Amino acid sequence: MTGNPLIKVLSDPKVMAGFDEADWDQVIRMARASGLLSTLNTLACQVPDTAQPPARIMAHLAAAGTVARQHHAQTRWEVEGIHELLLRAGIPVVVLKGAAYVMAGLEAAQGRLFGDLDILVPRGALADAERILDRAGWQQENKSRYDDRYYRRWMHEVPPRRHHSRGTVIDMHHSILPLTARHRPDVKDLWAEARTIDGFEDLYVLAPEDMLLHSASHLFLNGEFERGLRDLYDFVRLGRQFGQDPTFWTRVATRAAQLDLTDPLHDATRYANRILGAGFPASGAVAKRTRPFMDTLFERGLQPNHRLAHDRWTAWALFCLYVRGHYLRMPFRLLLPHLLYKATLGKFSEIKAVEQEQATLRAFKDFLVK
Predict the structure, then answer these.
(1) Residue 157 gets which letter from DSSP?
(2) What is the dihedral of CA 329, 333, 337, 340, to 10 degrees?
(3) How far apart are CA 150 and CA 154, in angstroms?
(4) Coil vs helix vs strand at 203
């Protein structure tokens, strides 16, 4: 197990008892950068009094815990509002990721912060759902015609929408992985096993097995690791809670084969065990294979998102994982033109869009002055 102090805390919170001021300085810096500061508060509150941090540190963590509770209350309010809007049109909704943990009251929600509300709706209902959200003030963020076409033709979601007054962002999905991805779970199977959220009609979360698999696939079939450690800890907390059922891991393995998600499940269990000491059962060819190169990449990419946790090879590892993620999400014949566009013409289009927006604002200000 790594010597990183934040990872030590996530693996065994009782180690807090041996931390000095320098340790806490590092842990708090790394936890904040990794989106885990309020989670750290949750862990500090759960350990015995003799292992808790000093009062000054606890006060700092408690403030982060207050932010998380307010964030969860706002999340529940937003989800209920979105559900009410779409229910009128007969559109069912599955809540995904962090918002799902909150709505289902899972242990993984404790101290969990997240930027967007992720929901899943039937693909055939996307157009109606977009119109309804537009009328309710949720405006599409991405104005680029290229990006809009890219999302709608290849991706598993439509462009994000931000509420014009509250700033909340919705990511509306019709599947959990891109249409071009190498792994292609059938979304109908996910809907078939989705679980109703108590007290709501046509509002769901994924089944426990599917929720764990979505957590694994989101992390290990993606190329973005800014919050990789937080996402890996999500997987650990979900696995520990659901794994209290002795048949759970057998069911997960069967479900992963059905949904074509065996590889990300094996990756997630491998690195949850190697990095966070999760102790999850692992089986199959992927789990038994020695993978020194991938271990080097992931064990660097899944460190806290702070320079204190990085070495000279971290940037290289993150770049390799970024390329790998794109390779898994899109075939090379589509990936190369896309990356070339984003690196050249796409940059020019973004600059022109910003300049146009600034010119519009200046004209509006001039009009007000006159």
Answers:
(1) B
(2) 70
(3) 6
(4) strand
Distance CA(288)–CA(280), nearest Å, equals 14
Structure tokens at 91: 């559109």
Instruction: Look up residue 171 and give its DSSP letter.
Output: E
Return the residue matching tokens 């709505």: 103
116 and 74 in contact (C-beta within 8 Å)?
Answer: no
The angle formed by the CA atoms of residues 99, 42 and 3, to the nearest 5 degrees, is 110
Closest CA to 131 of 85, 166, 164: 85
28-84 pLDDT, tens digit per residue, is: 999 999 999 999 999 999 998 878 899 999 999 999 999 999 999 999 999 999 999
Element (H, E) at 139: strand 138-140
pLDDT tens readout for residues 125-140:
999 999 999 999 999 8
* Nearby residues of 342 by Cβ (< 8 Å), 6 or more positions away: none
